[in-house]
Design a protein that fits this description.
11 strands; alpha/beta; 9-stranded mixed beta sheet; two-stranded antiparallel ribbon
Length: 334
């Protein structure tokens, strides 16, 4: 009795093609190759031995897995950006001094490989709102004629607002302002270097646009499409402790996350720079929060403030400014 060896349809077709090539006969019909039962029931004549020297056949072609697509950035209803000061990643993530921040990290998302561009503070604020350093190298009074995110937002028909804690109002241009009580947290000084909007002449030279910069006490999460929150120099950790900033955020952030305006919106909490010079400005934490994201979401791709800017621009279909054009958006499953 002849022993029947089961052959896969793909194997039969390859064998038939090789036989045809060596014997000059026709290749097997695809219709036969697609029917294993019919093939195994036949009693084929003994095949002529096939020379194998120098012949290779790959009957199981290698298939490369397609790369996972980068999730699209949603068209967020509102985008909120809170900028804090001068803390390296390890002094925030997992730190006992920052219980509220770590509760946000557990509830929402964290970019784990986020780096600031440079030192000191102010050039990073310019980078995150214009896509470049624009010639800034130190903390100083700058008047920059440069395209910026605020202009982009307004040109797209959307609105923007900067809530700068302790800001005196009226296109205030001096470098510092006296400490005053303004909203939650401790009393502290307003510093112009931490308020990037006032460094752009398209805003500082236009009183009606300067009116979009106000104190923090009047914060309204539904007031504008894009809202940047600049705490004073105590509440942003600049001249205080991690715990001081954590307490401020615990008092302030629920005004966003517990509001109706947070639905379909994005909250970004970042730092201007770290304390090391890793990648230029140090390894910093950046928290990413939307209402529907999976708790404990993480993004491990290399990113920086240009990535944050690109995320906002992609969400609203804005052209990428400067270095943001080379950056990838923060790829979370929003």
């Amino acid at each position: 009795m002849k022993r029947r060896i089961p052959i896969s349809p793909c194997g039969i077709l390859v064998l038939a093609i090789v036989l045809a090539a060596c014997q000059g006969g026709p290749a097997a019909s695809p219709s036969v190759a697609s029917n294993p039962a019919a093939t195994s029931a036949a009693s084929p004549a003994a095949p002529t031995p096939i020379p194998t020297a120098g012949i290779t056949a790959d009957v199981s072609p290698s298939v490369s897995a397609a790369p996972s697509p980068t999730p699209a950035v949603p068209n967020f209803k509102h985008v909120y950006v809170i900028v804090l000061e001068n803390r390296e990643y390890g002094s925030i993530v997992g730190a006992s001094a920052a219980p509220y921040l770590n509760s946000l990290i557990a509830r929402y998302g964290l970019a784990t490989s986020f780096y600031a561009e440079t030192h000191p503070s102010e050039p990073n604020y310019i980078a995150m709102t214009s896509g470049g350093l624009q010639g800034t190298t130190i903390d100083a009074t700058y008047n920059l004629d440069a395209p910026n995110l605020f202009d982009q937002v307004e040109a797209s028909g959307r609105t923007w607002h900067v809530y700068a804690q302790g800001y005196p109002g009226g296109c205030y241009k001096p470098y510092i302002a006296d400490a005053v009580t303004d909203g939650p947290g401790a009393v502290g000084q307003y510093a112009r270097k931490h308020n990037p909007a006032i460094s752009y002449t398209s805003i500082s030279g236009n009183p009606s646009r300067c009116a979009n910069i106000t104190k923090l006490a009047g914060f309204d999460p539904a007031a504008a499409d894009f809202e940047m929150i600049i705490p004073n120099q105590i509440n942003d950790m600049h001249s205080s402790s991690v715990n001081a900033g954590d307490l401020f955020l615990k008092a302030f952030v629920p005004q966003i996350t517990e509001s109706a305006a947070f639905a379909g919106s994005l909250l970004l909490i970042t730092w201007d720079e770290g304390t090391s010079s890793d990648r230029g400005g140090g390894h910093i934490a950046t928290i990413v929060a939307t209402p529907g994201m999976a708790a404990g979401s993480r993004y491990s791709g290399d990113c920086n403030h240009y990535s944050m800017l690109r995320t906002i621009e992609d969400a609203w279909g804005l052209p990428a400014l400067g270095e943001a054009a080379k950056a990838k958006p923060l790829a979370f499953d929003y």
